[in-house]
Write a structure and sequence with these properties.
rod-shaped; 13 helices; 2 domains; Hypothetical protein af1432; alpha+beta; 57% helix; Beta-Lactamase; 4 strands
């Protein structure tokens, strides 16, 4: 807004209240120079505090305060008095502009201007919303950028971890197969146990991660037998107490071998406790009931059934029916009853699928055996000679 300059005012305008003609001139000037409804009131005060002009309908010529506007202290006292008397709302502002003949000369009077700030607050509110919207948009963009970077880095880390686990798992599985190969009776024992253990875990409704850990532990459960001599593993007769001690140590040995591997702890603990018993009479720590990790409880049933149904150096294989009866009899003593219940539900279908997947015995096996025996008989006289 602009206000009329001093050269618009005549010297007689400052001698007393403006005449009606002069007031009309100032009214026209203010209307021409101020187009905003924000302007509430305009007054012109003389240096001694006399009201000379007001754009409102109010009495002129009244001097409400004895003040000399020509001194800084008098001007400040005048401003304080006017602010106290006006009692404007919080949405209004009171502005004072001195009227001077020259820049450095004492004030001849002062303009008092009242502004309504409510529309300005509304504009500020719109501006604040725009600013906060921009800030929120920037923060959202920053969050999305960081989220994408972190997610990409996490995926890369998970891939690297999976590759590392796969590499270690491949190494340990090769070791487990080598251990199976040491015993002509066990053959592909670890893989067979893994298939049954995985089927049992699924039948029990365990989550996918736990099922995967159990299958992994089943493939590695005998890795500790690398520390057991071949003579003990393949001994056809009764084991001595020392040989029993060596056999019983293989679970702890397997756990120690797997300790440095980047495998889930559930896998390692299932290997360690795979020979615990539900009644607490197992080894290596004599855990009982649900204190035994669920992976070890599942593995105990799968390992026992697979061992019962295959030949061992010290006994012939049991029939599937005999092995199932022994598993059922061990519920609550050697085995977790919940695992035995799941075993009873799936074992028929599991055995059928295993039989169908088993490769047929080659027809030439018997003929080759007879030919080999004949060759040995023919070679005997030559060796004697």
């Amino acid at each position: 807004h602009t206000i009329p300059k001093l050269d618009t005012l005549a010297p007689e305008d400052l001698r007393g209240p403006l005449s009606a003609d002069r007031k009309a001139v100032l009214d026209a000037l203010f209307r021409a120079s101020t187009h905003s409804p924000d302007l509430l009131r305009v007054r012109l005060w003389r240096a001694d505090g006399l009201l000379l002009y007001s754009n409102a309908d109010e009495p002129l010529g009244v001097a409400p305060v004895a003040a000399d506007l020509r001194t800084p202290e008098g001007f400040r006292r005048f401003v304080r008095d006017r602010q106290r008397r006006e009692r404007l709302s919080p949405d209004a502002a009171l502005v004072f502009v001195p009227v001077q003949a020259r820049a450095a000369s004492p004030p001849l009077g002062a303009y008092e201007i009242s502004y309504d700030l409510a529309p300005l607050y509304d504009r500020f509110a719109v501006l604040r919303r725009i600013i906060w919207s921009g800030v929120a948009g920037g923060l959202l963009l920053l969050y999305l950028s960081v989220f994408v970077l972190v997610r990409r880095a996490s995926r890369q880390l998970l891939r690297q971890q999976a590759d590392l686990i796969a590499a270690h798992l491949g190494t340990y599985q090769a070791l487990a197969r080598a251990i199976d190969a040491r015993d002509a009776y066990t053959g592909d024992h670890s893989s067979r146990v893994a298939r049954l253990a995985e089927a049992l875990a699924r039948a029990m409704g365990l989550d996918a991660g736990t099922v995967e850990e159990i299958a992994m532990a089943a493939r590695l459960h005998d890795v500790g037998k690398i520390a057991v001599p071949d003579a003990v593993l393949g001994k056809p007769g009764r084991l001595t107490p020392e040989e029993h001690r060596l056999i019983r140590r293989h679970a702890e040995a397997g756990y120690q071998i797997l300790q440095s591997a980047p495998l889930p702890e559930g896998v390692k603990r299932a290997v360690l406790h795979s020979h615990e018993r539900w009644d607490g009479r197992g080894y290596p720590q004599g855990l009982a009931g649900e204190a035994i990790p669920v992976g070890a409880r599942v593995l105990a049933v799968a390992d026992a059934y697979e061992a019962m149904t295959h030949d061992r150096p010290y006994r012939r294989a049991l029939t599937p029916a005999e092995a199932r009866a022994r598993i059922a009899a061990g519920a609550g003593a050697q085995f977790d009853p919940a695992v035995v219940e799941a075993f009873g539900r799936i074992i028929d279908a599991f055995d059928r699928e295993a039989a169908e997947a088993r490769p047929p015995q080659p027809a030439a096996t018997l003929r080759d055996a007879v030919s080999l025996a004949a060759l040995e008989r023919r070679a005997t006289p030559a060796r004697v000679r």
